[in-house]
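Moderator note: this is an archived Q&A kept for reference. The question asked for a predicted structure of one protein chain; the sequence and the answer are reproduced below.
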Amino acid sequence: MASIRKEIQIDAPPEKVWDAVRDFGALHERLVPGFVTDCRMDGDDRIVTFASGAVMREVLIDLDDEDRRLVWSIVDGPYRHHNGVAQVFPEGDGSRFVWTTDLLADEDVVELTEQSVEAGVGVAKKTLEAA
């Protein structure tokens, strides 16, 4: 099992950051455009197309407005288990964005996932600070 945790400071109020994070069906428009090229809802699930061309079904597990915490799971793809958590915390005049991914997968998949999470938080920072 691997646990990947990335934190980044975002120069935007936590309410603004959370509003984009919690918009489960607009990932490709409001949070990580370019990193995710398409996102469409299929019931409560979202079907996410990444810039790499990978397409994955993500199931919403929890959306907690009070704690500004979103939890999802990828239920297909290269994982035996996947649990993702994005959380937004107030920090100074801005926000701290934390993305944690716990997964069971082959070592090469873990490495690719870590690279993807790193890239994703960078895109989120750029997008949210520009908005």
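Archived answer notes: The mean pLDDT is 96.
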